What we know:
With 632 residues, the protein is α+β, with helices and mostly antiparallel strands.
Amino acid sequence: MSSVARSGPLTEQQERWWLRLYWREKGDIDNAWSKQWDLPAGISVEAATAALTVLVERHEVLRTAFGLGPDNLPYQLVFEAEGFRLPLTVAESGTLAEYGDEGGIHPLVGGSMYTRPLWSVRLFVEDDEVRVLSLVFEHIVLDGSGVRNLKEQFLALCAGTERPLRITHPLDRAAKERRIPRTPESRAAYSRDPRSLAPRLLVPATVKEETPDPRFLMSEVRYEGLLPLLDRVCRAHGVSRAMVLMHAVGWLISRYSGIPRIMVVNAIGLRLPSDDSIDLVAKALEIMVDLDEDRTLAESLTEVSAGVLRAYTEELRLGIRDQDSRLRLEKERGIGSVRGLYFNYQGLSEPDTPEAEGSPSVTEVEVTRTDAWRSGEEPWSYATWIYVDDTTVAVDFDVDVVMLPAETVHRMAELLPRFVRLVAEQPDSPLAAARALLPADFARSTEALLVRGTWVHLDTVAEVVAGCPGVLAAEVSEEGGEIVARVSLDGASCLFDVHEYVLSRLHLEGDLIAPHRYRLAEGSASRATGPGLPDLAAGADWLPGDGTPVLGPTTEPERELVAALRETHGFGTVNLALTYAEAGGRAVLAPAVVETLRRRGLEGLQLPHFATAHTLRAMARALVRRKPGHAL
């Protein structure tokens, strides 16, 4: 068994990834990251194993696991290379399809996240040679050239050669982070948080109908002949392939939704040519993309590219935005988490050779598409996964068809190469000219309204408000840019209870927003806005936050929750009307609260209780006594 070489605190990025690992083990949907390499002929199992062993010795991050310290905070353990058990299995190549279909991307789930190495590898063998290598990481390993760097190292080692690298472990990166001064003044200099500018959903739900099953589409589109066009744009405007494709996909999403500004969650944000360290990516970079149709196609593209660099520089200088401030921001907006367009690019960023003089003009782009449908994925998602090799561009549109119908996805797949061609051949045309590419019925069809920059469906709000215990009837309308809920209550309820009920359900509905004001209907049996507070006259408005009661712990679960907060955070609370973040709770300590309550015999808390606008009282209501015989 390998001994511990050194240990230390997590970086900011590692903390985020550690939280994702923890909640995934509690049943949250979050895939491991996986990569499959087709290998050249002539690599034996022995050679592959020896190469992987060298990589493990070379890269401490492959010998790093997370633990939980006595202060309830996570830390990282780096194990000695000597005695380290290589997480490797060997299988026949004929089992490759089965491996993918039956959970190959989840081989590490089920063990303790505190002790296991956070990666695994499987070799698929045919005729005593390794044909395919599958890598699965619970944390994502990334270096300056992307994952391709690790593959190059592996192949070089299999061939008996070396590829020297400077390597920086996250522990060393953490020490550097702590040396960067991050004062309140420096953080105040941050440009406005993209989440304050973006709607909760880039695209509203389509017209309310029965939710389809399966509702998640992975449309894999391959483009033969697109790469020369792509590279022509890159050379002409000094941008990367990823930026050309992000610009194209972003414009299509923008034109479908009708919003010229979208938030892109960019998975390539930390890749810079000069950075050959290995680090962990716990969240991708968030960038606001403004698509000003008065600009030319070339200007629009270069502005998107420059915006990505500015966003990366800003985050590098000032650090990752605080998660707890994000929770407060989203509660103020009355929404759940913001979901931008996830964009993941894999492949060489730039053309590998200059364009030769007299190169033939690009003629046709051949498009082939394969659709696969799934159930049980994370709702309200829109992601594009892009892979570029020597001849082909492949784009996987991974979407919830409640947001982007299959027909729209297929149209986007057809339009993408036409848009790239337009940029290549008419760069000085205005961006607005690209609208001529769109079918007349391309724009979304929805009953949702855009209120304060966020898509909201009034029927959804009314259904949720009416579902609160004690509500006899509810009507919801939009008045002057606000959502107003007109509510009739029984004698035992108050409007604060209704609002708290809505807040606790923000993570369940993609087009739900908490009402900006509530109005008691005429004849409502109850007019109290909270214990000890004056009655509210029928027809008068109550604004959340005005007259919010102070709720102390009264039930056993509430008292246990307060005790757990005191044990893990060092403080109690006298007001259960606050959210976890408002009460001073730190996101990174949320797992410690869950484990402390489990030791006390209570369970039921999940990620949304900490990461959305649940009040502490609502969290306590979710706690249930563990049944006898359940293991801790």
